[in-house]
Amino acid sequence: MSEIEKLLTLDEAAEVLGTTGRFPRRLVAERRIRFVKVGKYVRIPESAIDEFVAAGTVDVVTRQKGRWAS
Known about the structure:
Number of strands: 5
Low-confidence stretches: none
Strand order of the largest sheet: 1-3-2
Number of domains: 1
Radius of gyration: 17 Å
Number of helices: 3
Strand content: 15-25%
Largest sheet: 3 strands, antiparallel
Shape: elongated
């Protein structure tokens, strides 16, 4: 039997993201993050938080000899 991924409440997701509870609610409403409906409840898989953060991560750019390089 496969293991089920942990599903976070919107308030738990907000705590992981370091935001208010309103932010993950907005992400769900705008369909900007994966979520699961469990009856009337909305849950966010832990991996969806990781994906959201990875998608918004900006890599460092270094500057060499007066020019920008990646």
